[in-house]
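Supplementary Note 3. Input sequence used for the single-chain structure prediction.
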Amino acid sequence: MHDLTSTVGLVALGAGAVAVVALVATLSVTLALRRVRSEQRAVLGERREDLVSHAVSLQDQFVALHDYVQDVAEGLHGRMGKAEQRLDGAISHSSLVRYDAYGEMSGRQSITIALLDATHTGIVLSSIHHRDQARLYAKQVQAGHSEIELSPEEAEAVQLALQHSSGEQPATR
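The predicted structure, written as discrete structure tokens, is reproduced below.
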């Protein structure tokens, strides 16, 4: 038996110490690798795929999702444009003027209604009531003006409609 204090003994002790350190390092790396694989399984599931392939797959899916969202957004933009065009043609300005057309103290039974869209185009309807008859007149309005001369009440109804949006209290005089 050799003495541990000899050169051979010291080399043997050194080699044993290096072996123990290598064993501890190997166990540490093995535990770290198990933890990484466990975390990888949490991300990837049970598929046999590495993280790089998974990242590439996710990137491809995000690109496909982005393209799909872009297509949907463009479709919605087109539909919104059509809806706005349709809404521009809807009645957005209105007013009602009541008056006594014949000055007979009959309770302001005559009325004029202006119904205009966003481009100030529409109609003015006047219903003139007398004791034994009623007459209805309609005049077209383009861009806030009529080709046929408007009565003072009709002009007032158009002006009030342009000043107030639909849904407000009707004007009376």
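The two ends are 129 Å apart (CA to CA). Residues 166-173 have pLDDT under 50 and may be disordered.
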